[in-house]
């Protein structure tokens, strides 16, 4: 469990080696630590955390997207890092607007961890986030020719309307 | 919509989707330039893929040169549906994801929400959760054993393991009311206490199960066919597995004793004394032995938990989160109001985001919940172990025969509900 | 509206069969038959009582009903219960002739759609259904295959009956193995041509069905108002 000071130390070392503007924010809540970084620098930050940091993280547990609609910047990609030696978890978050995401600001991390392959495809499928450098970015769960990115918050949930009685469309509403 | 792909007739649309990019150069494989490659589709409907998994195999004769898994054939939109439901209703959605390990799905979601709420779970509830999760682990491994042995030709194991799995499902029915997807875990504890006689029945089960596992091992461990099919087949180096994000029995078969129950304990697992079985070589045979040994360790945990079950409440007493007991509704106005608000609107969770991870029978199962202050989650993402483990299938299968590919799928233990969500 | 009831059986049934009123008598009769000691009318009586007469259609239906070979079509959680039906010794589909799960659609009689039908999977299922040979039946097992189940969203087809003709719906999430067996039994009765009479036939309650979609006659058919 990384405590608040540990998180600040990590943020400081990342800023020190990669530049001041890399880490936008640090969040420590509910016993979990998250670094908010600039999207363009994500790959460098993760490479640094994997290889050069004093306390390296060797396992990418999860890579997933999130839509913070209506708060801007809307789309975010979260990376959950795990250190099997020290048994600590660290979250890295990169937030960007929809236009930036579709333009491909975010670099891929498949060369650092092979696990990112499917997970980046899934994030592209559901949120439309393009990862530059990914060899084969295609839809994974939805059919190949599907239009739209389902897990964005403004994508409708879809499904069938539930009819409660056979002549519902004829019965006047109670508020009319 | 009027001019898009969906306006074309079905067959045209199907034929317009090409798979050229997938059959493109096989990077990283030893293929001679003049080798005759043949692409075979092990379609979504296939007896040996555990569920609707589609594999595009590029074969040279009988040897697999490349495998591309294509998924999404049982994609249910669970994550998006959860955003539309209250937290306690989302438990039922999330349970149906990895449909053999339903208690684990429910637990990880409840644990994430409890962390967001900073909620304490009483000790009895934790022990009950542990017992049910370990029973589910045994049930999941039993089903895996039955169907994997079926794939390899040892059909007897299916009958035996399903018979034992029925006794576990009887226990679940006794405590939770249903065999599968019981909705027994709630945020703050469990739905209700175990009925009298459950502990005795559980001890009966654990007493019998040891001899049953002995019988399974006696049948398969030194079986010539089993050994020939599984020994030294499907070896993937540990570093490659770590890079692929593989966890669970697949990782432990290579010798890495990483198990979240021991390394980052949750839900009072630190109170129990059990071992982590690891393999040596990392082939399919080790994966099989690791899972069977894990069943034995789970039996130990269940015995310790049932014997040492503390007394106390089975759910948190925080009325803002958990329903008050029914008898209070007749006497207390506050309890009535809490009940009403919880059932109609649900409890509200203060804004925040949390990633919680546990050890499911297939590996690290993670749940990422974003709360925005309302009674419905803003984002639920389940990091499913089968989804990530599936990426090591091409590594396992390259250079081996198709029959070894089938054994590989079996030993990988994929659950398509979790992969496709 | 009158309620028609079946009269109670007041006279005793003709049991045991005509050739004798207990086992010993029947045994002696059979021995006489084997020894060739029965003469004309007695022989005729004996043969009639041991013979079953039926039509070819009924015999065919009986044969088809008692050996429905399902196609292995497990999609999701209901597949686990389906495998329990065939594998667990407690609920056993083998006694109904349905334990031979064929992998090839060409060799299967019925398809048990167990699990949620995703949009991506629907054309696959339809293609496999088309590959099956007549006669074929469909059991839609579980809530997700019958309607959308609890997943009313963009990813699922709301019920397999949108693209397949379904014969029997088995509700549940997941249905118990016993429920699936009940569904297989109902399918067998349907194949034999003896569907269970619904309550409207039994109590003569015709005219109470709800009718909708017809122009100008909205409302309950047969309603006095």
Question: What would you note in describing this structure?
Answer:
The complex is a heterotrimer of chains A (176), B (421) and C (225). With 176 residues, chain A is α/β, with parallel strands linked by helices. Chain A has one domain (4-132): NADH:ubiquinone oxidoreductase Nqo5 subunit (Beta Polymerase, domain 2, 2-Layer Sandwich). Helices cover 25% and strands 25% of the residues of chain A. Chain A has a five-stranded mixed beta sheet. In chain A, strands 6-7 form a two-stranded parallel ribbon. In chain A, a hairpin with a 2-residue loop joins strand 1 (23-29) and strand 2. The model of chain A has no long low-confidence stretch (mean pLDDT 87). In chain B, a hairpin with a 2-residue loop joins strand 6 and strand 7 (363-371). The two termini of chain B are 26 Å apart. Chain C has 225 residues and is of the alpha/beta class. Chain C is built from eight helices and six strands. Chain C has a four-stranded parallel beta sheet. In chain C, strands 5-6 form a two-stranded antiparallel sheet. In chain C, helix 4 (77-87) crosses helix 7. Residues 13-17 and 215-225 of chain C have low confidence and may be disordered. The chains are: A alpha/beta (176), B mainly alpha (421), C alpha/beta (225).
Keywords:
heterotrimer, A: 176 residues, alpha/beta, Beta Polymerase, domain 2, five-stranded mixed beta sheet, 4 helices, 25% strand, elongated, C: 225 residues, Rossmann fold, 2 domains, four-stranded parallel beta sheet, 8 helices, 36% helix, extended, disordered C terminus
Distance between the termini of chain A: 57 Å
Number of helices of chain A: 4
Strand order of the largest sheet of chain B: 1-2-3
Number of helices of chain B: 17
Characterize the main sheet of chain A: 5 strands, mixed
Q: Largest inter-chain interface?
A: A-B, 45 and 48 residues
Computed structural class of chain A: alpha/beta
Give the biggest beta sheet of chain B.
Answer: 3 strands, antiparallel
Quickly give the CATH architecture of chain A. 2-Layer Sandwich
Please name the CATH architecture of the largest domain in chain B. Answer: Orthogonal Bundle
Beta-strand percentage range of chain A: 25-35%
Query: Could you please say which CATH topology of chain A applies here?
Result: Beta Polymerase, domain 2
List how many beta strands of chain A DSSP finds: 7
Mean pLDDT of chain B: 88
Total strands of chain B: 8
CATH class of the largest domain in chain B: Mainly Alpha
């Amino acid at each position: 469990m990384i405590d608040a000071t540990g998180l600040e130390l990590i943020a400081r070392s990342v800023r020190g080696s990669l530049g001041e503007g890399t880490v936008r924010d640090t969040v420590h809540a509910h016993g979990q630590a998250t670094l908010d970084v600039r999207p363009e620098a994500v790959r460098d930050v993760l490479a640094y955390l994997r290889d050069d940091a004093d306390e390296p993280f060797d396992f990418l547990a999860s890579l997933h997207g999130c839509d913070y609609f209506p708060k801007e910047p809307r789309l975010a990609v979260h990376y959950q890092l795990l250190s099997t030696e020290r048994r600590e978890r660290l979250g890295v978050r990169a937030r960007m607007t929809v236009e930036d995401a579709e333009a491909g600001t975010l670099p891929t991390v498949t060369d650092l961890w092979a696990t990112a392959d499917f997970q980046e495809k899934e994030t592209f499928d559901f949120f439309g986030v393009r990862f530059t450098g990914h060899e084969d970015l295609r839809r994974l769960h939805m059919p190949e020719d599907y239009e739209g990115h389902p897990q964005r918050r403004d994508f409708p949930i879809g499904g069938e309307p539930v009819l409660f009685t056979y002549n519902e469309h004829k019965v006047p509403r109670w508020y009319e | 919509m009027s001019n898009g792909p969906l306006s074309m007739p079905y067959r045209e649309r199907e034929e317009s989707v090409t798979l050229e990019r997938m059959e493109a150069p096989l990077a990283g494989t030893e293929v001679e330039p003049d080798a005759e490659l043949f692409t075979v589709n092990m379609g979504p409907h296939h007896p040996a893929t555990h569920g609707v998994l589609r594999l595009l195999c590029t074969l040279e004769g009988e040897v697999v040169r490349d495998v591309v898994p294509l998924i999404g054939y049982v994609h249910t939109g669970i994550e998006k549906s959860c955003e539309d439901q209250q937290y306690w209703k989302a438990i039922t959605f999330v349970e149906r994801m990895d449909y053999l390990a339903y208690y684990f799905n429910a637990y990880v979601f409840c644990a994430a929400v409890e962390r967001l709420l900073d909620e304490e779970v009483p000790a009895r509830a934790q022990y009950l959760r542990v017992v049910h999760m370990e029973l589910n682990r045994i049930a999941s491994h039993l089903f895996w054993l039955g169907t994997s042995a079926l794939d390899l030709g040892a059909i007897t194991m299916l009958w035996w393991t399903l018979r034992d799995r029925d006794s576990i499902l009887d226990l679940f029915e006794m405590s939770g009311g249903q065999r599968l997807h019981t909705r027994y875990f709630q945020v703050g504890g469990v739905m209700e206490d175990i009925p009298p006689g459950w502990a005795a029945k559980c001890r009966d089960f654990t007493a019998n199960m040891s001899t049953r596992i002995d019988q399974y091992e006696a049948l398969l461990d030194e079986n010539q066919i089993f050994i020939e099919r599984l020994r030294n087949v499907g070896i993937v180096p540990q570093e490659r597995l770590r890079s692929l994000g593989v966890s669970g029995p697949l990782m432990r078969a290579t010798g890495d004793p990483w198990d979240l129950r021991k390394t980052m304990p949750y839900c009072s697992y630190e109170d129990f004394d059990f071992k982590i079985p690891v393999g040596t070589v990392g082939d399919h045979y080790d994966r099989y032995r690791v899972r069977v040994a894990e069943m034995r360790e789970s039996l130990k945990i269940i015995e310790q938990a049932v014997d040492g079950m503390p007394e106390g409440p089975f759910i948190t007493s925080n009325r803002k989160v958990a329903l008050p007991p029914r008898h209070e509704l007749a006497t207390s106005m506050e309890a009535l109001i809490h009940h009403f608000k919880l059932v109609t609107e649900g409890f509200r969770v203060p804004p925040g985001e949390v990633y919680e991870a546990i050890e499911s029978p297939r590996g690290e199962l993670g749940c990422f919940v974003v709360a925005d202050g309302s009674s419905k989650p803003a984002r639920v993402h389940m990091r499913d172990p089968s989804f990530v483990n599936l990426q090591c299938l091409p590594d396992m299968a390259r250079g081996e025969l198709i029959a070894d590919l089938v054994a590989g799928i079996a030993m990988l233990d994929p659950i398509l509900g979790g992969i496709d969500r | 509206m009158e309620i028609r009831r079946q009269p109670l059986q007041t006279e005793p049934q003709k049991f045991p069969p005509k050739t004798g009123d207990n086992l010993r008598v029947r045994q002696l009769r059979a021995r006489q038959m084997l020894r060739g000691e029965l003469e004309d009318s007695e022989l005729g009586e004996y043969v009639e009582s041991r013979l079953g007469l039926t039509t070819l259609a009924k015999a065919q239906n009986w044969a088809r009903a008692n050996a429905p070979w399902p196609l292995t079509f497990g999609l999701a959680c209901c597949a686990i219960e389906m495998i329990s039906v065939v594998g667990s010794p407690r609920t056993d589909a083998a006694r109904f002739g349905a334990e031979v799960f064929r992998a090839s659609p060409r060799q299967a009689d019925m398809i048990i759609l167990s699990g949620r039908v995703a949009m991506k999977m629907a054309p696959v299922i339809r293609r496999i259904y088309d590959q099956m040979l007549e006669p074929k039946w469909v059991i839609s097992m579980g809530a997700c295959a019958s309607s959308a189940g609890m997943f009313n969203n963009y990813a699922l087809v709301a019920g397999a009956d949108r693209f397949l003709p379904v014969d029997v719906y088995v509700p549940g999430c997941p249905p118990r193995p016993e429920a699936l067996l009940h569904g297989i039994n109902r399918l067998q009765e349907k194949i034999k041509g003896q569907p269970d009479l619904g309550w409207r036939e039994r109590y003569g309650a015709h005219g109470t069905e709800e009718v909708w979609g017809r122009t100008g006659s909205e409302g309950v058919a047969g309603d006095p108002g």
